[in-house]
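QA checklist item 7 of 12: single-chain prediction sanity check.
[x] sequence parsed
[x] length recorded as 112
[x] structure emitted
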Amino acid sequence: PSILDRDKAVVSTQSTGDHTLSLLFRLPNGSRVTRAFLPEASVKELYEFAFTCKDAPNFFTLVTNFPKRILPAYDTAEVVLSCREVGLESSTTLFLQEDDSESEGSVSEAEM
């Protein structure tokens, strides 16, 4: 896998329109970033966007709060599932749950 440079990361264009999901990303430091995605966007795209956020940790897992769900990890086959397939709806908050150490399933610069 190639190393992702946060400053040069290419993230798909933000979606707009009536058929988009507005997702709120909460970083461990409490900051928030909102972005619109198509329902067909993959979980991998969510991880790639989250990683480019300022102050995103090097290792994290995306987690919803209510209902509490851990999204498929970046390095698993399920990461290709769409937002719709994993049950994400507009206005969902995704928490970047920081992993204390490099662990299986978490995303890092080296994996992207």
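[x] summary fact logged: Helices lie at 43-52.
[ ] second reviewer sign-off
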